[in-house]
Structures are given as structure tokens and as C-alpha cells.
Amino acid sequence: MYDTEKVVIWKVVVRSFGLGIVLAICSNCLLLGYDIKLSLYGISLVIFHLLEFLITAICNSSQLEDDSFILHDYQLLLVNVVSALEYVVYKYFGFESNWRQLFAGSVLVIVGQVCRSMAMITAGESFNHYIQRSKNETHVLVTDGIYSVSRHPSYFGFFWWFIGLRIFLGSWITLGFGGYQIWNFFNQRIKFEEGLLMKFFSDYGDYRKKVSIGIPFIYPEEIEEDEEDEKEEETNKDK
User: Fold this and answer.
1) Which residue in 213, 47, 64, 207 sits closest to 124, CA to CA?
2) How far is CA 77 from CA 71, 80, 162, 168, in A?
3) Range of the domain at 122
4) 61 φ, ψ to 5°?
5) Averaged pLDDT in 10-residue chunks for the chain of 239 residues
6) Helical residues (DSSP H) of 129-171, grouped into ranges
7) Which of 25, 62, 167, 234 has the highest count of CB atoms within 10 angstroms of its CB?
8) How many domains would you assign to the chain?
9) pTM of the predicted model, to two decimals?
């Protein structure tokens, strides 16, 4: 059961209604053949935010909030708007995407969304939009299903979904700047979170040796090993 203090019904209604309007507009534009790429882009964004709330409500209702849509992430919203504007500018000057770009972007978006949603469903009550700094009774180490492929499948999915949308739309400037920002965000978040997971679960060390993350150039285990080696060297010097 969700916490009534964290879920303000009118806010849920307003956000759902707003997303519904955007979905209806984009769907109509798609059916009428008006800018198919931009229409699909808008539909993908709406589906992402709706699924964030819906899956949380079904699989982890105790952690449900009125903004489990994660629409409060204004930086993400800004990047999404800028991506659309960048696409419009390119289109105005006659720059068109080729089929390889559209195909690659579409695949990444679909794979990213599926991985993100499956991670939330598989983790169930162990999934949370916020990093848990203390272990609660429902927090268990999930290693099966999609977690047997990536130890952070929700981050993996979010990252590649984000990258895929920029490639699909052809927003190359936003891809470069926004791609680095989201990579850096997950890089720092994963390093911090893995430190907590090592404390919460005694078998997490063995698990992460077997399963990678799937986001390029993020290797928190190697950094920790280097830090441990440095500490040992300092200890030996003291001796």
C-alpha cells in the first residue's frame, strides 16, 4: 500500500493528464504523417515516464510518490526539449537522418526501455528511485533475471535509452554534451552505491566479479582495488 503522505492524488492526476495530452498529440501527428520522427520521439518520452510510475505502483507501492514519474528531473526535461529544438533546426536547414542512424537509435531506445522496465519489475521492493543509505527488511540482493546480465540494469537501460533517443533524432550536440553528463552522473552514483552494497551484502563482491555493468568506462571495482592497494602500500611504508 502506498503512503498517502507521499502521494498527492491531484498531482498524480495533473501529471498523468499532461502526459496523456502529449501522447494524444504525438499519436495523432504520427497517424497523420506529420513529422514522424518527432512524433515517435514524443511518444517514447511519454511511455518512459508513464512506465516509471506504473511499474513502481504495481511492484513497489510502498515507495510510490506523486512524482514517481521522475518528471522532477528538470535537467533531463531541459535536455529533451533542447534535443527536439536541435532536430528542428537541422531539419530547417535540410539535414536528414539516414536509415542506419534511425535503425541504431530505435534499437537502443527499445533495448534501453525494456532493460529499465525489466530491472524495476525483477527487483520489486528492492528497487528505489533514490539510493538507500541503510538496509531495510525488504532490501535483498537480486542476481537473477536481467540482473544476471548487468548488475545495474536500470542504469544500463536508462543510459542507452537516453543515447538512443539522441541518435534517433540526430541531435548530435545534445548527444555529446548530454551523453557526457548522464555518463558522469551514473559513474559517480554507481561508485557510491556499490560501496553501500558491499556493506549491505557479504556476497556482493563475488557477484560483481561475475557480472559487468554495461555502461562504457565505468569500473568501480577496479578503482576500489587500486585504493586498497594504495592503503596497503602506505601501511607497509609505516612499518
Assistant:
1) 64
2) 7, 5, 12, 17
3) 97-238
4) -65, -25
5) 86 97 97 95 98 96 93 93 96 89 97 98 93 85 97 98 97 96 96 94 94 93 51 39
6) 153-169
7) 167
8) 2
9) 0.90
